[in-house]
Specification:
This protein is an all-alpha fold. The protein has four helices and no strands. The longest helix has 30 residues.
Length: 97
């Protein structure tokens, strides 16, 4: 395997594992514990999914530049998680109802 394929495999596996480990308990808690503001939180996450991605990319780039995460695998994983966690939380909370 080439280095690029290993990096892509590491990215895919770590994003999927981290996403599942974060969103599954969060969705379960949102569905069964029924905290205050649950509907507002899910509506806010849905609204953020409707915004263009560039709205989030520029601030992420500025923050990642300040903490030296630009052009790193960890930075790529964190950037991807900012987009996938809200979507997965919406999907899993609907599934767990």
């Amino acid at each position: 395997m080439t280095r690029t394929r290993l990096a892509l495999a590491a990215f895919a596996l770590s994003t999927a594992a981290t996403g599942a480990l974060i969103t599954a308990p969060a969705a379960y808690g949102l569905v069964w514990r029924k905290p205050l503001g649950r509907q507002s939180l899910l509506a806010f996450m849905l609204m953020t999914q409707m915004l263009p991605a560039i709205v989030f990319v520029i601030p992420l780039f500025i923050v990642f530049t300040q903490i030296n995460l630009v052009n790193t695998l960890a930075g790529l994983i964190l950037a991807d998680m900012t987009f996938t966690i809200p979507f997965a939380l919406i999907m899993l909370s609907a599934y767990m109802k």
